[in-house]
Design brief:
Blueprint (H helix, E strand, L loop, with lengths): L3 E2 L7 E4 L1 H8 L6 H14 L2 E5 H15 L1 H8 L6 E3 L3 H15 L6 H11 L7 E2 L3 H5 L4 E2 L1
Parallel strand pairs: 1-6, 2-3, 2-5, 3-4, 5-6
Helix pairs in contact: 1-2, 1-3, 3-4, 5-6
Length: 144
């Protein structure tokens, strides 16, 4: 299990999961208030937000299907604010291997496993904003 942090103090960058973005962009999400608090910290401390294109796609889809077009559109209009990683074929094969390993015992998202590959590699174990238990299960440091 990964460590959990309650604050972004001292960080200059953070990885954001779809669960954070969904909570931030939908007032109806149960974690919306907490997401707003964390985003305020991000703005005040000028913390760089990292994510990947798979997270962008997952967020757009969840917002559209669960909350509506206006929420998805508002998120889409914000993507220039993020440093978006483009995963490559090596990342995908690593994620598939981990998905096969972890997927035997529990339901785990391929996108979360791909995020693990990116965070534990290129992003040097950067803490992640996530309300999703998969990130903790994978041993990532999360802020929620």
């Amino acid at each position: 299990m990964g460590a959990t942090m309650n604050t972004l103090k001292g960080l200059n960058s953070v990885y954001c999961d779809a669960s954070f973005f969904v909570a931030l962009f939908s007032k109806k999400d149960s974690k919306h208030g907490r997401a707003l608090e964390l985003f305020k910290e991000i703005k005040e401390n000028r913390i760089v937000i990292h994510t990947c294109w798979f997270i962008i796609a997952e967020t757009m889809t969840i917002l559209l299907y669960q909350y509506g077009y206006s929420e998805a559109l508002t998120f889409n209009q914000s993507i220039d604010l993020y440093k978006i990683l483009t995963s490559n074929e090596d990342h995908h094969y690593q994620a598939i291997a981990l998905f096969n390993l972890f997927g035997k015992d529990r339901r785990i998202s391929f996108v979360d496993v791909l995020s693990y590959v990116l965070i534990s590699g290129e992003l040097k174990n950067m803490p992640a904003l996530s309300f999703d238990k998969d990130f903790k299960t994978l041993g990532l440091t999360t802020i929620s």
